[in-house]
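can u do me a favor
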């Protein structure tokens, strides 16, 4: 039987009522948005004076069923809270995105990825059913068999078809520890070839691989990080203190080894927001010593970044130094693995950003996710790069350049950050016809923003 978490079912019902009340209170002419204290989106949007939807009662795990290996989860529950509820049963979601405050609903409607994606696909593929507050103000249940059009169109819709209220997801057994092997490469083609072999066989040196991602520091310094679950006890590293995880990967030749608890492995990137905490001085040994550990997390850095953008601090400092302002290039793209080395070579030659994150991905099933149409049975590599570059001669010059290159390589780009596509390009890449049909059916009065308006026009 499912194991209730406190009085979560009663709390969930109350939370749904509060959500619906807040939805009905939004004027018909005002945009509908969630009231959130944190976000993992990186695109600007128009300001609104209308109150956001009350999601305060939808932040919990409703129940965990250890026998069925499923969990019922409220849409605004963070992965940090979800993992805390499932690990005591030796279970975890099939894909746990890297940052603690990403919500389950957000990872499904906005896509998510992590180092299990080469074998488990994306978070929405492990959703069995979900309740969605649609633009029509109804809470509807969708699954592969019930309202399958909504179920299939919801991933990558970014709240423009509705908001996830409850999700039932698959869980998988996990061991208490992860043994890591960091493989050094001097050529990107060699790294990609090794990655491809691991994905095709599921093994490294005859041992089953559970986790796989990588980091590129330069054309002649790159790494694969290979993780294997284990129950064997022993010393473990702790990168929430003075040591920094991504720096621990680096070495001159061959392979190095490390061990983490499963909890610390899942959140290994959160402590330093991958490597982006360096922008705030949090990696300086002296500053790090006095930076409280509870604030060494992605949500803290995101708030600092928001303040910087609000007051234009970065551009002001650049002007004082006699330099041009900076263009933000915060993107994740997927390119077919056979074009990955080509893209990386191009990127390193044209975009002054390092390090770069690599995460291989393969859909679990035969596809059918029209708003982000990756091909089934094909391996892609997510390439993540998050920094700024000097502004060019036109708005978003570097971002536009990247968009064109990704398109040339038959790739796709996530929509959590700035996008510059024309309406025609956007419809072609993100399921325009299918999206419009779902929009007309489940948001006939257009109470919610259109996906193009939200992702490209920044409304």
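np, heres the sequence
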């Amino acid at each position: 039987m499912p194991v209730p978490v406190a009085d979560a079912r009663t709390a969930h019902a109350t939370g749904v009522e509060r959500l619906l009340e807040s939805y009905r209170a939004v004027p018909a002419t005002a945009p509908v948005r969630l009231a959130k204290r944190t976000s993992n989106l990186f695109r600007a949007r128009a300001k609104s004076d209308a109150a956001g939807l009350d999601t305060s009662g939808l932040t919990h795990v409703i129940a965990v069923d250890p026998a069925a290996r499923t969990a019922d989860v409220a849409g605004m529950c963070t992965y940090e809270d979800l993992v805390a509820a499932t690990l005591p049963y030796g279970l975890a979601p099939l894909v746990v995105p890297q940052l603690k405050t990403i919500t389950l609903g957000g990872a499904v409607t906005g896509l998510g990825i992590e180092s299990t994606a080469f074998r488990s696909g994306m978070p929405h593929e492990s959703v069995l059913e979900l309740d969605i507050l649609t633009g029509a103000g109804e809470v509807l249940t969708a699954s592969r068999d019930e309202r399958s059009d909504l179920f299939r169109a919801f991933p990558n819709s970014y709240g423009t078809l509705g908001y996830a209220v409850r999700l039932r997801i698959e869980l998988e057994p996990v061991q208490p520890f992860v043994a890591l092997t960091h493989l050094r490469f001097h050529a990107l083609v060699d790294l990609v070839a090794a990655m491809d072999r691991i994905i095709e066989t599921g093994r490294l040196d005859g041992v089953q691989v559970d986790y796989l991602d990588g980091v590129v520091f330069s054309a002649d310094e790159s790494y694969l990080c290979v993780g294997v679950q284990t129950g064997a006890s022993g010393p473990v590293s702790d990168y929430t203190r003075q040591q920094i995880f991504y720096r621990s990967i680096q070495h001159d030749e061959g392979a190095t080894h490390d061990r983490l608890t499963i909890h610390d492995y899942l959140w290994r990137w959160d402590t330093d927001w991958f490597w982006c905490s360096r922008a705030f001085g949090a990696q300086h040994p002296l500053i790090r010593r006095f930076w409280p550990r509870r604030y060494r997390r992605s949500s803290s850095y995101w708030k600092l970044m928001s303040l910087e953008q609000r007051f234009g601090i970065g551009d002001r400092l650049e002007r004082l130094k006699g330099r041009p302002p900076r263009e933000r290039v915060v993107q994740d793209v997927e390119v077919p693995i056979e074009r990955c080395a080509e893209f990386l070579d191009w990127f390193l030659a044209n975009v002054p950003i390092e390090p770069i994150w690599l995460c291989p991905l393969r859909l679990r099933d035969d596809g059918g996710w029209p708003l982000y149409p990756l091909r089934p049975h094909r391996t892609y590599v997510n390439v993540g790069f998050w920094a700024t570059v000097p502004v060019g001669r036109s708005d978003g010059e570097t971002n536009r350049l990247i968009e064109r290159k990704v398109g040339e390589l038959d790739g796709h780009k996530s929509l959590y950050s700035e996008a510059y596509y024309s309406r025609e390009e956007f419809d072609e890449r993100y399921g325009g016809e299918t999206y419009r049909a779902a929009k007309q059916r489940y948001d006939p009065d257009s109470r919610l923003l259109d996906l193009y308006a939200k992702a490209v026009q920044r409304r």
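The chain has a mean pLDDT of 92. hope that helps!!
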